[in-house]
Specification:
Layout (H helix, E strand, L loop, with lengths): L4 H25 L4 H6 L8 H34 L18 H29 L8 E8 L2 E11 L5 E5 L7 E5 L3 E8 L4 E5 L4 E5 L11 E5 L4 E7 L11 E7 L1 H11 L12 H13 L25
Parallel strand pairs: 1-5, 4-10
Antiparallel strand pairs: 1-2, 2-3, 5-8, 6-7, 6-9, 9-10
Helix pairs in contact: 3-4, 5-6
């Protein structure tokens, strides 16, 4: 007995829709490079630690997709070949009970997957959180509602004996100037509520606690930046009214440019009688040929006026 024309047409229509959908997915996927696809939405890292975490994430997602494809395949196979058919007597399908090999497979495989995942999680975490006893650069990061202060306690000091420091304001995004190819330690502390230090290109985020020693919080971490550039930094912990505007910018410079920056920050501006600010030091370096990399203002984010009286009824 042949298949009715209406049923055959319906099946062909479904196949055509699936083919069109697959074609659209294939066309859209060609807009992404292989490297972008394997990052699965993660930003391109600028530190070895970021690359290590991205690699771990990629293989974790691939493993999850493999398990997902197997599960989806079994579900679709069951739906396609074991569904109730019209005109047949309703009866239970063949039952499989006390199938020892199948039970061992269903228990053993997940245990192996969890153990493998735990192993690579632990090894990746140990690499990312590793610290050297004598880092090349130390930065004290102080978070407050709703901005940041960056100081360099181990670098040269100003003529007044104070450490080099940069403080953000409602009109100026603070610049965290760092060297490439040097081990950097970040010491985090908050003066009020819990904040979070996050630079997407670091693929790393850590909470900034008011009293880290009392909260059993490791308030420091280290990394090495691979290349020059400007990278936006954000607070990733809801901390109040202007949390979304609590941004900063990491400015990564080559070691020679960073040394020049530190040297300028310890000198006095003859016009103001005060040590050069971060913007003034970078302006001088830009005039010396540093280029856009030494822009005195942030290039990845803009300041936000926190004066609520500036708003009107129309927004």
């Amino acid at each position: 007995m042949g298949v009715p024309e209406r049923t055959r047409g319906t099946r062909l229509g479904k196949v055509a829709k699936v083919a069109v959908l697959a074609g659209l997915v294939a066309i859209l996927a060609t807009g992404c490079s292989g490297e972008e696809i394997l990052r699965f939405g993660w930003p391109e890292g600028v530190t070895p630690e970021a690359d290590r975490m991205r690699t771990f994430w990629t293989w974790t997602v691939i493993a999850a997709l493999v398990v997902g494809v197997i599960v989806w395949g079994l579900i679709f196979w069951s739906v396609a070949f074991f569904r109730k058919k019209k005109g047949t007597v309703e009866e239970l399908p063949r039952q499989f009970q006390y199938n020892v090999p199948l039970e061992l497979f269903c228990v053993g495989v997940p245990i192996v997957l969890v153990c493998v995942l735990f192993f690579f999680t632990a090894t990746t975490e140990s690499v990312v959180l590793a610290k050297e006893d004598d880092p090349d650069v130390t930065v004290d990061v102080t978070a407050f509602q709703w901005n940041w202060e960056f100081s360099y306690p181990e670098e040269q000091r100003t003529p007044e004996g104070q450490p080099i420091s940069t403080v953000g304001s409602s009109t100026e995004i603070p610049l965290l100037v760092l060297p490439t190819d040097r081990k950097i330690q970040y010491n985090l502390r908050s003066t009020d509520v819990i904040h979070s230090f996050w630079v997407p290109e670091f693929n790393f985020k850590r909470d900034v606690m008011p009293f880290p020693e009392k909260n059993n919080q490791d308030n420091s971490f280290q990394n090495t930046i691979d290349r020059e550039g400007a990278f936006v930094g954000r607070c990733a912990e809801l901390c109040g009214t202007y949390h979304a505007m609590m941004n900063f910018e990491v400015r990564a410079l080559s070691p020679d440019k960073y040394d020049r920056y530190i040297q300028l920050r310890t000198q006095v501006n003859q016009e103001t009688g005060q040590p050069y600010t971060a913007a003034e030091a970078l302006s001088i370096m830009q005039g010396e040929g540093c280029g856009e990399l030494c822009s005195p203002t942030a290039t990845t984010t803009k300041p936000f006026a926190t004066d609520r009286t500036l708003r009107t009824a129309s927004g």
